[in-house]
Amino acid sequence: MSRWPRRISLVGGLFVVFAAGQTTLTIASGGAILGASVDFVLTAFPGVLLLYLGSWLPNSGLDPELYPRVLMWCLGGIVVMYGFITLRVLHPNVSVEFTPGTRSIAIALGSVGGIAIGLSEARAITHGRALSERNEQLKQRERELERQNERLDEFTSIVAHDFRNPLSVARGRLELAREECESEHLSLVADSHERMETLIDDILLMARQDESVTEVELVDIAGIATESWQTAETGDADLRVETDRAIRADESMLKQLLENLFRNAVEHGGDDVTVTVGALNDPDGFYLEDDGPGIPEGMREDVFDYGFSSSDDGTGFGLAIVERMCDAHGWNVEPTEGESGGARFEVTGVELGQETDDRATVAPSAE
Predict the structure, then answer these.
(1) What pLDDT sits at residue 362?
(2) Distance of CA 184 to the CA centre of its chain
(3) Is residue 349 domain-shared with residue 244, that is, in the same domain?
(4) Domain assignment of residue 279, given as a range
(5) What is the C-alpha to C-alpha distance for residues 294 and 289, in angstroms, rounded to an integer?
(6) Tens digits of residue pLDDT in 310-353
(7) What is the residue-averaged pLDDT of the chain?
(8) Per-residue confidence (pLDDT) for residue 117, from 0 to 100
């Protein structure tokens, strides 16, 4: 621990002793008690201030290396004031007496002013060092993120190429095997290949959705929902779109978001499920709900966790990707219960346009 707080307190004590001695000598030599008392206050006040600083500095948050600068500024202020008075005394056209009162004023003004300057400088230096250290930490964190992104790019490359190439070979071999014979085991192999392809797609999608959306456009949610429905594997399920509002979003990411929600609804509700997309008014946003079995209340907090799935065919990534895409837009997605008891996902924080048509539209089942 720095010894400078004690030294500063010691200097403060010397100021008080000097003030008491000067006052005693003044009174003993026949000086006025009132004047001597005023001089004592002026001289002792910097000492009391230094005594307080000695106990305050360790808890001030200032860099201990700067404690001596505060004391040096205090003493330097006194030297400057004494020098100024000395110049006034030496001036041929000015009559100034270097009395105890004059010395007391010089000590009081010089020391207090010096302490104020010293503390201000110490705060500025400490703050500057803290900012510099923080900037260095941010740069270090940035370098770490760059290394992580490089490793993620390498992983994505491996998933995109080194995983898919053997999978393509396996599919080709499977087709050749089916030409020679037909077996239920081969159908199970084909299903496994499809599941592997879905997992690869989901992993790649997650790896590419780490950044926030920076550019959005006004898109028609009804049109995007219909397009997404046609490209998602929805079997004989039906889609109802009950709003023609426009929202500001990244069109490609919104399509992927809706496709994942559509696949989740069919995966858990079956091919005969009906999915409804509509607008929320308070707060602004949109919802997607189905008339399937719904999500048990005790499981709703877990549905967005990576790897979580209540279906044997699920990858456990679909809803996690939905949440990540919402986060990228600055939206919030919340699972709840639909009007018919099915699953309902409400996306809020969305900037909506004006509704142009109140009529509900129905999209045909995907072939």
Answers:
(1) 46
(2) 52
(3) yes
(4) 217-363
(5) 9
(6) 555 555 677 888 888 898 888 999 999 988 899 999 999 988 76
(7) 82
(8) 92
